[in-house]
Amino acid sequence: MITAIIFGFAIFCGWLVFDVTKQKKLTLENIVSSLVVGVIGALGWWILDLFF
Questions:
Q1: Distance CA 20, CA 42 (A)
Q2: Total structural domains in the chain?
Q3: Could you tell me the residue range of the domain that residue 47 belongs to?
Q4: pLDDT tens digits, residue range 29-41?
Q5: How far is CA 41 from CA 11, 14, 22, 23, 34, in A?
Q6: Phi, psi for residue 25 in degrees, rounded to 5
Q7: How far apart are CA 18 and CA 14, in angstroms?
């Protein structure tokens, strides 16, 4: 579970940096989309961790 949270946070940070460098500004839309991608990534990692 902890690894899924760390993975989700890393995905969130990476996606946020990618969006900010692409658009040259930080907006609420970038933060929310990065959060959604991070949560989806964390859930996927957690599900994979359950099976393997």
A1: 21
A2: 1
A3: 2-51
A4: 999 999 999 999 9
A5: 7, 12, 21, 23, 10
A6: -155, 155
A7: 6
